[in-house]
Amino acid sequence: MPNQLQGLKQHSVIVADTGDIDAIARFRPQDATTNPSLIFKAAQEARYRPIIDEAIAATAGLPAAARLDETLDRLFVGFGRRILDLVPGRVSTEVAARLSFDAAATEAKARRLIDLYESAGVSRERVLIKIASTWEGIRVAERLERDGIHCNLTLLFSFAQAVACADAGVTLISPFVGRIFDWHKKVRGVDDIAREEDPGVASVTRIYEYYKKFDYRTQVMGASFRKTTQILDLAGCDLLTISPDLLAKLEATEGEVPRRLAVDCAKASAVTRIDIDEERFRWMHNEDAMATEKLAEGIRLFDADARKLADMVEGLL
Q: Does the pTM exceed 0.90?
């Protein structure tokens, strides 16, 4: 009998959510995603020190004021390049969370990362630029997509964010199942939520149905899982990005995996189309307490880990 990971691959594209290159080599996913937290974790391991050393050496002639920022960019791209040696698809590389409300700086950083990839011989078709799903970030992604720079809109918690991303024509969104689940557990004061009532799974299901109902080209990639049942209940989602520990659990468990999300069912759903502008976006998002809190928290946490990584690299310069 096939294991659950094999079964899941029949319905969804599997993406590794890690900066651990060895884990990617083991599971051989189609794509991989990274973020500052994952890169910081990986960069502390001695086996990845050559990637740091390479980034530092490449910036040796720069003025001190610019060297740290450029070294970090090259470090992210260095991890991305090595990941692309192992996956046939794409890697997601994230723009600094501290730029989430600065459209000009976000766009400049995205273009710089793409320049570095292309200078290293990596086509932009193999890179997804990860940008936080703020109104500013979504507008930047819309402009980047017009220039063939594909974007993965992350830290997505509200339906308003999902609708705005689809209207902007972004390549991919990453709704965070586990963090939605965490918030509802805390608010309800419970240790768990019944599988059939999981709010994170429900959120991704709603987004998937909306996108397929109205033929949006934007893909949905469920992310931030806490347990395998959340993953299995989204079988059929365009993509699923999964941490190595959960990939291992799926691989170790035998069983059939039925498809849960399908285009035909989405087409038959009763969802209605929403017209969204900045005012409506901000109001709808504001009305979702979970989304408002988790977006702000996610930006803070990614920035905190980015600062830790910067401090570590600065100590080596």
A: yes
